[in-house]
Amino acid sequence: MEGAGTDTDDGQGSPVDPLQLFASYPFSTDSTYQQGIQSIVASGALDGQPQDDRENVLLQSQIFYFNRITGHSLSIDAVRRSRPVRDSSVPAVSRTTPTTSTSPPALHATDEGGEPRTLSFAELKELIEQGKTDQIPNNRTIPNELNQKTPSESQATARKKPWELVEL
After folding, report:
1. Mean pLDDT by 10 residues, the chain (168 residues)
2. Torsion over CA of 33, 66, 80 and 124, rounded to 10 degrees?
3. 3, 91, 95, 133: least buried by Cβ within 10 Å?
4. What is the C-alpha to C-alpha distance for residues 120 and 124, in angstroms, rounded to an integer?
C-alpha cells in the first residue's frame, strides 16, 4: 500500500516512487488501456475539442488507469508537477491550484480503537471511483445468483384454515 509516496515494489527492498512508475508505464503497449482509449475516441467525446483539452483527457485517462491497476492514488497535479519542463504536451499547473492529497482514504478508515469509522461522502466517492469498494468499511459483495443448495424441509406444522379453527 502507498505510504509517503513510495513503495517497495522492485523486489530488492528499495523504495520506488509511484510517479516514476507512472512515467515509465508502457501505456502505448497495454492492450487494455488502448481499448479504453479507442472507446473514448470512438464515442466522439474528443471531437471538436482543442488539442490542450485532448491531451488533458489523455493524461486523466492514463492516471485513472494507472491508479486502478496499481492501487496508487496519484493526482493529476502531482503528475503534472513531476513532468519535466521540456514536456510541452501537458499544460503547466498554476501555482494557485490547490493540491489534493495523494494518500488513499482507506488508510484512515479505522479510528484509534481499530473500529471502522464512518467515511465522509468525499472519501466514499473517491473509493468508488477508484474501484476500491473492498476497502469500504462494512461493505460486502453479494453474488448475483440464487443459492444452489437444496432447500430444507419445513419444521413448522401447517397453519389451520379458518373453518378448521371452529370448535364444536
Report:
1. 44 71 88 86 80 86 90 87 58 35 41 67 88 81 84 89 79
2. 120
3. 95
4. 6
